[in-house]
Amino acid sequence: MKTEYDRRADAAYFAFSSADPVRQVKLDDSRIIDHAADGSLVGAEILSPSRGVDRTGLPRVDEIAGGIRALGFRALGAERSARTATPR
Question: Confidence band (pLDDT; 50, 70, 90) for 78?
Fold first, then answer.
């Protein structure tokens, strides 16, 4: 896995493949998953990781969580994310 972090945009990208992404799955406003034409995982984009990252629904969650922690940010579990979420 290759990790890129843009400090100015507060955005991280975790690349699992060098294939071109052709389809995106938006998990929510801060998490987008890229897939190749054959359906394989290309990568995951996390916006505002400095605020903590909800791991729920992320592919290869352990690898991404490790990458998030390596950047110095928090990788929240599903139960903690639900408790700390701001009600709408």
Answer: low
* Boundaries of every domain in the chain: 2-84
Q: Are 17 and 41 within 8 A, CB to CB?
A: yes
3-state secondary structure of 24: strand
Q: Which residues contact 82 (CB under 8 A, 6 or more apart)?
A: none
Burial class (CB in 10 A: 0-12, 13-18, 19+), 13: middle
Tens of pLDDT, residues 32-63: 999 999 999 999 999 999 999 999 999 999 99
Alpha-carbon gap, residue 64 to 62, rounded angstroms: 6
